Amino acid sequence: MSGHESLHIRLRLTRADFQLGVDLTLPSSGITVLFGPSGSGKTSLLRCVAGLERPGQARISIGSEVWQDDAAGVYLPTWQRDLGYVFQEASLFEHLNVRQNLHFGLKRTRKPGAEQALAHALELLGIGHLLHRQAGTLSGGERQRVAIARALATQPRILLLDEPLAALDIARRHEILPWLEKMRDELSLPMLYITHSADELARLADHLVVLDQGTVKASGAAQEVLARVDSPVIVGDDAGVVLHGRVVQRDAQWHLAQVAFSGGALWVRDNGLAPGQAVRLRVLARDISISPQPTQDSSIQNHLQARIEAIADDAHPSQALVQLRCAGAGAGDPDAAALSFPQSEESTLLARVTRRAIHTLQLVPGDAVWAQVKSVAVIE
């Protein structure tokens, strides 16, 4: 789809104990994650888009194609909507092998190039070697990859995924996440993805929609929404931000790699990262401390110049969340300094500190400080 073919969702769904009301315009590519507590309306929203549930008032369109417009009397049933749907359970036919399951899925499409689309899905998801296996012999991760390939083979205009990893154990989740990342990076297909997992959100989301009690609390680029301090998306130990960067150098002696991002650069553990490689970094609020002055004698190697944008209450009254705007590279690191980005492209961090520390250091919005980053996770 071209850039103007965005997904528009405006609907109101009323039940006895629940009301869902949204008005969204979502990107035409990448993964949009629907995030929020149980009962917030995520699955209901996805089912309305798919036509599995019919809201009383709605207009749902993708590009110029209208799937529902109650004002105009338009309603397309699910089978007429050009979409793929992946559920929590793979729902494969146990008496068929993988090849037969995949070809069964092709029966609903009459688009030219279906076999080529299936071949591409097999390669993309790495399941070509499973074609002769019976569905009942597959692991949970293999089953979900087959289910996703079956959906992709129909060449949908959008792919809907309702917690596709929820039924898998941790090992199987880690097995399938790289394949989902590969789909996001190699396909121009827009995807709506439901998850309760902060890890999945950090690794996969390009765009983020936060739902609570049927209402959209935030919608926008994931990097920006995660950095909000007025209404944090994730509370507790998983609160933090995602930075998009690029590997600029490696230190073979210490097995480290330096990743530059807008506003600075960080040293991370080198797991075979290639210079020039684009990566995502996850920095948790609990792993950042704040100092008014640069600290030279410290085991913490990543120091970033920053300014305080905002200070907000945290879940416990003893703590606060501090929003920091990165203002440049680390102290005493000329290589990092040379990689500084324009100020208009600075990145945001969140730091969790005690209220006592804020009082003692007399920290207020606008202060220039140093963010000391104790730990960084490379998630891509």
Keyword list:
380 residues, alpha+beta, Rossmann fold, OB fold (Dihydrolipoamide Acetyltransferase, E2P), 2 domains, five-stranded antiparallel sheet
Task: Describe this protein's structure.
The chain folds into two domains: 7-228, P-loop containing nucleotide triphosphate hydrolases (Rossmann fold); 238-378, Beta Barrel (OB fold (Dihydrolipoamide Acetyltransferase, E2P)). The protein is α+β, with helices and mostly antiparallel strands and 380 residues long. It has a six-stranded mixed beta sheet, sandwiched between helices. Strands 2-1-4-5-6 form a five-stranded antiparallel beta sheet, covered by helices on one side. Residues 330-344 have low confidence and may be disordered. Helices cover 22% and strands 34% of the residues. The two termini are 25 Å apart. It has helices spanning 42-50, 98-106, 114-125, 140-153, 170-186, 198-204, 222-226, 334-337, 355-361; strands at residues 7-14, 19-26, 31-35, 57-62, 65-69, 74-75, 83-86, 158-162, 191-195, 207-212, 215-221, 240-251, 256-261, 264-269, 278-284, 288-291, 302-313, 319-326, 348-354, 368-373, 377-378.
CATH superfamily of the largest domain: P-loop containing nucleotide triphosphate hydrolases
Separate helix tally: 9
Strand content: 25-35%
Provide the residue-averaged pLDDT: 89
Main pleated-sheet profile: 6 strands, mixed
- What is the correct CATH architecture of the largest domain? 3-Layer(aba) Sandwich
Q: In oligomeric terms, what are we looking at?
A: single chain
CATH class of the largest domain: Alpha Beta
Quickly count the domains. 2
